[in-house]
């Protein structure tokens, strides 16, 4: 299937959210936090620019305001990225959307001079509803749910997705297994398997010589880093041994195991170099998540 024209890529991408799919010959590109390497993360202008730069999927990080409105923002404290102060769920949606989400975004020129371009051109913290409406309905969206308690977050997000009729274009991820389990109870929700399940599966394959004793069920989406620093702990009678390693856990054997059943999809995070993209491509990864769709577009073209 040709994927040169952006319109066709989006059609293929939309199909990715369902079990039935003709798989693309190349990994599709997901813009991490909307494209955090190219502009202020999780903001509408960055989301829109990422689509212009060749992103196929938009990854959005969502938390809930004190008055129950889902907004796009990742750190717990708004001081990390904006001109405000306070924890996200201690502020109202009106207070959050009044902040400059690009206040801490910096750029460095060829001479090494650092500047903060969005302090003079503010960009707001968007609500999830506004973000959904700001991009074409054909664009698949991954929502990373980053807040506890799980029930408050899941209920607020599900309400917006239902009202915007967006279930078919959205898939949910969280590093917290309880958040994923609770969202999975929503009748129309599409979710990744828990990060714990993906990590455990990869560890078992690596430690069992590539043996595949528990592949994902048909239709499962799995997402984790292409490679990651991990701590291996071995328990002894009188203590424990600890090893710090960089896990290159996506091997051909691991990918074969994860793709054992029909409709399974693998998305890898942290793909920001030509070497990482080539590795993901050779493994048969379905989606790569990158900070900079602009950079990845050039890397993908050079890899053809």
What can be said about this structure in brief?
With 304 residues, the chain is an alpha/beta fold. The chain is built from 10 helices and 12 strands. Strands 1, 2, 3, 6, 7, 8, 11 and 12 form an 8-stranded mixed β-sheet that branches. A two-stranded antiparallel sheet has the order 4-5. It has a two-stranded antiparallel sheet with strand order 9-10.
Tag the structure with descriptive keywords:
alpha/beta, 304 residues, eight-stranded mixed β-sheet, 10 helices, two-stranded antiparallel ribbon, 20% strand
Description:
It is a single chain. The protein contains ten helices and twelve strands. With 304 residues, the chain is of the alpha/beta class. The strands form three sheets. Strands 1, 2, 3, 6, 7, 8, 11 and 12 form an eight-stranded mixed β-sheet that branches. A two-stranded antiparallel sheet has the order 4-5. A hairpin with a 5-residue loop joins strand 2 (57-64) and strand 3. Helix 5 (150-163) packs across helix 6. The chain starts with 5 loop residues before the first helix and ends with a helix.
